[in-house]
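Form 12-C: Joint structure prediction
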Amino acid sequence: MSARTGVPPTLEPRGNEHSLVPVADLATSCAAVGSLPGARLATMIGEDDRAASGAFRLSYVFALPGAAWHTVETLVDASAPEFPSVTRAIPAANWHEREVQDMLGLVAVGHPDPRRLVLHDDWPDDVYPLRKDFDSSQPVPRVEREPAIFHHLHGDGLVEIPVGPIHAGVIEPGHFRFAAVGEVIFNLETRLFYTHRGIEKLAEGKPAARVLQLAERVCGACSCSHGVSYAQAIEAIAGVPAPPRAAALRTLFLELERLYNHIGDIGNMCAGAAFAVGASFGAQLKEELQRLNERLTGNRFLHGVNRIGGVRRDLDAEGARDAERTILTVAEQFRTLIALLLESDTFVERLTATGIVPRETALALGAVGVAARASGVDVDSRRDHPHAFYASLPMPVPVVVRAEGDAKARMLLRIDEALASMAIVRAVLGTLPTGPLAVDLGPLPAGQSGFGVSESPRGENIHWVRTAADGTIERYRVRSASYPNWPVVAAAVPGNMVPDFPLINKSFELCYACLDR
Amino acid sequence: MFHLIRRALTNGVVTTAYPDEPDPAPEAYRGQVTIDPARCVGTGDCARVCPSQAIRVLHDEHGGWLWELDDARCVFCGLCQDVCPVNAIQLSNEYELATRHASHLVTRVIFRLKDGGERA
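Section 2 - Result
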């Protein structure tokens, strides 16, 4: 392992443009930014700023080419709590605006589908959890009423198949309602958000450092990415980047996270197609990688790697040799697994042309990660918004894009990305800079907002933070990769057979907990 | 198909015999929080840094203190170990924490001072 001092990583976000517009101009302004070449609505944040300005604040954050961002911000007067919906021009705004309706009580006027999203039917009207006057220490009395969130379809031969929220395996809760004609799915409606934890509310009023443990636990599968995104958000607000060695170690662990997820997810896809040998083989390799995580960081899910301003754990020479050795062993076995999968005609045929997502759909819904790249959308925040050590790697970040958009493309993409992750891990091990593991950020400036981005196995995770006057957290919003990708699943299913749904769902392998912040 | 069968026949056993045989966690593993009573000086830093209020440190009027850990609340982040000024806290390799009674998850250590101000 050669030691050198790396180029200091650049602060995220770079090129952050900002426009404050009157609420009446919100839709046209967002449509203008959203129609710039390569623009994508990345996240949207609603804030209760009534105490300071008498208004609610909405921020629509667009990702632009050239590592740039553009935030369109508006103030919604508390006496008229409504805003013109952007969703008809930018479909990716759909869930964000419904969430703001549920959590802050602002009406998205003209929204094509204004049903509840985060809050379920038993939540009372006129109680908005993210308003500052909502007291989260008190229980909220629930109301009895008929579920009103599904659009029931009627027609000759059309049957409705409800599945979940409790499933046969040990998986998270989600309700899927199929309208099917015989074996063929005509429409799928999903109801998620069953286990809302109030993490964003819980963060409010806490010192920034104390929220990191919450950020790491937004989800089990992308814990490291959530930690990196949150730490980078705070570092962006402070204007102090993590030192090079910390950035390199973050990249190392982000790639180890991608590796165990991708290989495990390939195994899960085998399970979705009842290909038992592949499923067991995938689980075996995932276990090898999670044991490596445990040896290097003390935790199988990479909890506790990050801290604000850097990382908590160093990697010694022995750990680096262990990582190198384990990756080599897993790589050899992984190639055997790939050969087994690709020579099984029944398995490959089951995946081919199953759950197709057209490129236009992925673009319109703002898909990220594997879901986007398997449908021809060339987006990867490791390259597009370089964070951690990605701009300092000895090679460009290998971004794989496929055109087919089916379950097979999503599997082949994971294979290529897993092999690329192994190369990145070895490259980081070979160029690990020397120097401190963390820097002290000092007191955080008051009333500042900032965000951090990192590429998880499911795509870009964005953590957005505003500080309060005393430097604690005023508002925290987590937009994980699964958030824009769940509507893509619902779009991929119609036209497929009911028994292919588990396979399609596993080909995206999205996270439910990532929604239930 | 041939490769599949060959794989199934030649793969061998990849699982461990746990729980019939022990399967120890690696050295770096962050398991149950332990305290070294000979080192603790009762600063309470561990309780203040704990993100899930799993640790409580309560002082009495005679200069003694109670150190209490609730494993049911612990998230094994290890911040208590990082912050302890006298290295009294260690996250051990113990991961077998299941029990039939929630009360068994609580550990209490009482520190009393002798007349001379020394630890009893």
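Section 3 - Comments
The radius of gyration of chain B is 21 Å. The first helix of chain B runs from residue 2 to 10.
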